[in-house]
Design goal:
With 172 residues, this protein is mainly alpha-helical. The chain has eight helices and five strands; from the N terminus they run βααββββαααααα. Helix 4 crosses helix 5.
Length: 172
C-alpha cells in the first residue's frame, strides 16, 4: 500500500531545510518530493510525503508512521513560521506578495503559487484577514485546467492569466 500526504512548507523551504528534512525522512522509510516541480524546488512550496517501504509492514503501521512524521514536520514548520514573522525582510516579502495578489492584472500559475504560499504564512499568523480555507481553495481553483473548465473552453495562456488575476483580486 502506498500512502501520502501533501504539505505546504514555505518556512522550511525559505530556511533551506528541505534537503535535511528529505534525508531525515528517508531514514524513516518515507520520501519527500516536490508536489509541483522536482525535489527541493517545489512550486508553491508544496511537498508530497509518502511511504517508501510498502512490503513487510501492515497498512496500519504505514499510516501511523506517515501520520506521526507529518505531525512532526508540521510542528517544525509552525516554529519556523513564527521566526519568519519576526523578520523585517520576510515581512517585506509577505506584504509585497499580498500586494501582488491583491492588485495584479495578469498572473501566471507559477507566480500565483509562490505568492500565495508566502501569504499563507501571514494568514496563519493572523496578519492577513482572509481564511486559511479560502487560501487552500485557491490552490485548486486557480490551476490552469480548473480555470478552463470553469470558463467552458481551453483559454489562451494570456487570457487565462488575466482571468486568474481577476478572480484573485475579487477574493483579496
Amino acid at each position: 500500500m502506498r500512502a501520502s500526504v501533501t504539505l505546504q512548507l514555505p518556512a522550511l523551504s525559505m530556511k533551506g531545510q528541505i534537503p535535511r528534512l528529505a534525508t531525515m525522512v528517508s531514514k524513516l522509510g518515507l520520501v519527500l518530493t516536490g508536489a509541483h516541480g522536482d525535489g527541493d524546488a517545489s512550486l508553491g512550496n508544496l511537498y508530497q510525503l509518502c511511504n517508501q517501504v510498502t512490503l513487510g509492514i501492515s497498512e496500519e503501521a504505514a499510516i501511523e508512521n506517515l501520520r506521526s512524521i507529518s505531525l512532526s514536520i508540521i510542528e517544525q514548520e509552525r516554529a519556523l513560521r513564527k521566526d519568519l514573522m519576526e523578520s523585517l525582510k520576510f515581512q517585506d516579502i509577505l506584504w509585497r506578495s499580498y500586494g501582488t495578489l491583491k492588485n495584479a492584472r495578469v498572473m501566471n500559475f507559477d507566480e500565483f503559487m509562490n505568492a500565495v504560499s508566502i501569504v499563507k504564512v501571514g494568514v496563519t499568523a493572523g496578519e492577513i484577514d482572509i481564511s486559511n480555507e479560502k487560501i487552500n481553495e485557491l490552490l485548486f481553483t486557480m490551476q490552469p485546467a480548473t480555470l478552463n473548465v470553469e470558463f467552458g473552453q481551453t483559454l489562451d495562456r494570456q487570457v487565462r492569466d488575466a482571468k486568474r488575476a481577476e478572480k484573485i483580486r475579487e477574493i483579496f
